[in-house]
Design brief:
Oligomer: single chain
Low-confidence stretches: none
Largest sheet: 5 strands, mixed
Distance between the termini: 38 Å
Number of helices: 6
Length: 150
């Protein structure tokens, strides 16, 4: 894992935070170069599909003009949800570096199943809990702020 790419994912998580979005950022890297980034924009765009990972995947695919993101790595500030995990697998991203695992044990089990090798796509390698305190801090701050505003 390269620290600079995780730092960049947190930079985008902070952008989401500033927009009152759940502060999750994602960066896709290939051969040491950033292809794309994303941050949650569900509320801003009123779309359930506007997760950081999906935005980053779509942008990377456009940039290289190919839906196959072979040999790419994804840096994200929280473990992906099952929807995003499926897209990551379908896009053939090789490695996912996550700052924090999801508290939900069902999410963890689903990720393990989704990321396994299958008849169509290779295994995705998930390395999690790489920046636990940083991720918890921004997420906790966000949810405390939301509770105060509601």
């Amino acid at each position: 894992m390269k620290e600079e790419f995780m730092d960049l994912a947190f930079f985008y998580a902070k952008k989401a935070y500033e927009l009152d979005e759940v502060p999750i950022g994602a960066v896709i890297v290939k051969d040491g170069e950033v292809l794309s980034y994303g941050f949650n924009q569900k509320e801003s765009n009123q779309s359930v599909l506007e997760h950081a990972e999906l935005i980053a995947i779509e942008e990377a695919e456009r940039k290289i003009n190919n839906w196959r993101l072979d040999d790419c790595d994804l840096y994200v500030t929280l473990d992906p949800c099952p929807m995003c995990a499926s897209a990551i697998k379908q896009a053939r991203i090789k490695n996912v570096y996550s700052a924090l695992s999801n508290n939900d044990s069902n999410n963890t089990k689903l990720l393990e199943e989704i990321f396994k090798t299958d008849a169509t796509n290779p295994e995705v390698f998930l390395i999690s809990n790489l920046r636990v305190e940083v991720s918890r801090k921004i997420l906790n701050s966000f949810f405390q702020k939301q509770r105060k505003n509601n």
